[in-house]
Amino acid sequence: MRRPLRAELSAQQVTVLWRRLGVRDLVPNERTRLECVRLVVQGHTAPEIASPVEKHVVTVRMILRRFLDGGFEGLADAPRPGRPSSWRCEDRYALEEVLDEAAAWG
Length: 106
Fold this sequence. Notes:
Elements: H1 11-21, H2 28-41, H3 46-53, H4 57-70, H5 89-105
């Protein structure tokens, strides 16, 4: 049987955790990772955390190990390979509108 992963945060780390969770434009994956940390600090186990965050228990354990090994910086998304998209959000929305109109005609 696996030993439950535990994490204890200092008062400063708890402040950092809540500040990061309060950011409105936080990347969804990072928000999920921070929620996992919040729940483990509250005493929940990885199987208990998996259901509310809608992740597999193995993924939750991986997230918690990333936090224990690298702190909050370990929870950030890794850089993506390849060239960044040159399309802006406005361009994508305009294309979606054109495609929706074309589909309505067809």
